Amino acid sequence: MSTPFLSVRDLKVHFSTEDGVVKAVDGLSFDLEKGKTLGIVGESGSGKSVTNMAILGLHDRRNTALDGEILLDGKELVTATERELEQLRGNKMSMIFQDALASLSPYHTIGAQIGETYRKHTGASKKEARARAVEMLRRVGIPQPDVRVDEYPHQFSGGMRQRAMIAMALVCDPELLIADEPTTALDVTVQAQIMDLLKDLQQEFGTAIIFITHDLGVIADVADDVLVMYGGRCVERGAKNEVLRAPQHPYTLGLLGSMPSLDGPVDVPLSPIPGSPPSLLNPPSGCRFHPRCAFAEKVEGGRCSAERPALEVVDGRGSACHLTSGQKRELFADYASARTH
Fold it and tell me: Would residue 239 count as lying in a domain?
């Protein structure tokens, strides 16, 4: 069995605050192969972005406790120095941020910002970096790249700014690309174009991609595998089609139930998940989803509130839930039936 390109094992990211310790990520494990896309989905505050900031080493070391293991092509990142991480960021691993306008400098041209990363990691001249920036803008589908390279972010539309961010992230041909909700602020037509662009570039470069989103519809379009996070933990993971067609955790089922279906009856009411995400300063005991779970009372002995369910993974498929397989088949089928009748 081949070694995964990215391997995360029992990752914990805890922040010290005036009010106490925030357990933003609390024991997360997953693998990612080259050329594959892992979709990480969950509500705001579930730990999605914190996980990936930890991979990139962008957390504040003064108030952040990082534990566990992050191996990128065999290189340990948890114990890496800032100098080592700087050599990897933008080169071997890169990130597309959600808000391109906030992430781009208004005082520098698009070409200068793309070229800066390229010069830092390759030692290229300004002329070579500008030529590389033009090439990357052409690759991401920006018209007249030799002209637009000298323009500023405010002269670009939202979709073009996001394309410029993708060009910047890919300028050094990184082997790992982290996309943090890169299409959230865009209209649906531009969203589709950006997702198609990422898939085309992945085929060209063989890049491993982590795609962070709260939108299962986006996951269905871009991901090979899905990791569902809740309260800083993974509650379900597996191949995209398996997770979306036959969820094995009540939270995943709830996320699907709160989305309209394009291939089902149009008059089926949506079923939002009751309550709010947990405070990670003082998270619930046991399963962190149990206060909002419609099935917690079906588990005998109050285990949901007392005992943390283990994430048992077999052939890449697993969920952290105390319900038995038989209970899930019965209860989840009844839930799905109620939505379609």
Answer: no
Kindly give, in sequence order, each residue whose CB lies less than 8 Å from that of residue 337, ignoring residues fewer than 6 positions away: none
Token pair belonging to 138: 């052409």
Q: 101 is written with which tokens?
A: 């306008």
- Other residues' Cβ atoms within 10 Å of the Cβ of residue 116: 18
Final residue belonging to a domain, choices 145, 172, 199: 172
294: number of Cβ within 10 Å: 15
Q: Is residue 33 part of a domain?
A: no
Q: Is residue 259 part of a domain?
A: yes
249 and 168 in a common domain: no
User: What is the rounded distance in angstroms from the CA atom of residue 293 to the CA atom of residue 61?
Assistant: 35
- Residues forming beta bridges with residue 31, ordered by sequence position: 7
Question: What is the arithmetic mean of pLDDT over 44-53?
Answer: 91
Q: Which domain holds residue 144?
A: 103-172
Which pairs from 140-143 meet CB under 8 Å and 24+ separation? 140/164, 140/166, 140/167, 140/170, 140/197, 140/201, 141/193, 141/197, 142/167
Model pTM score:
0.90
What is the per-residue pLDDT across 58-112, written as a single tens digit (0 to 9) for each? 988 889 999 999 999 999 999 999 999 999 998 899 998 877 777 899 999 999 9
- What are the backbone dihedrals phi and psi of residue 320, each rounded to the nearest 5 degrees, phi first? -105, 90
- Kind and range of the H or E element at 122? helix 110-122
CA dist 68 and 26 (Å) reads 10
Give the whole-angstrom CA distance, residue 34 versus residue 32.
7
Q: Which residues contact 132 (CB under 8 A, 6 or more apart)?
A: 114, 115, 118, 124, 171
